[in-house]
Amino acid sequence: MKPCSTNRKLIAWLALDALDAPRARHLRAHLENCEGCRRYLEEISNVKETLTAAEIRPHIQASESFHQRVVRSLKAEETGSTWETLTAHFRGKQLSWRVALPVIAASAMLIAALSYFGRRPDAAPPLRAGVPAVSAADLKTDLLPTIANYQMVANQSLEKLDELLTRQGNRNPSPTRTYTASNALD
Description:
Blueprint: H1 8-15, H2 21-33, H3 35-53, H4 64-79, H5 82-92, H6 97-117, H7 147-156, H8 158-171, H9 181-185
Helix pairs in contact: 1-3, 2-3, 7-8
């Protein structure tokens, strides 16, 4: 059984006799009811006793890189990941996954519905990058032969699309000879 995530640091301080009296009383009351925290206190106390009983050798020195690794590890454990923080929060609130999963699913469905029904029907579809926007005044000039421009003109009027295609077809005759059935007989 694991200790409560919110009490781990306090239990370590209690084992080192570094916790103030009110917090120590509150934590000891919690330890009477929580087996996981009680076991954790026993483990930390055993580690403390082992370390205090160990012989200190003054001639041994740790390298600077060792100290840097220890500090990095402590900072990483202290901050923790967002996912670990959220799961610890849910565990502390006794929120079961039977409640959390439907809440998450309902939230996702609500976001999807809002994004689908929140669109205005009269709003123009977003333009793709690289395709210049064309207004109705530009229809008299020749447009780039892109599908987006053809769709935009077709949405305004099919007659205008026919005019545009005819103008572009007349302007850009094929550089090679086009063979038809009548040319083949000649």
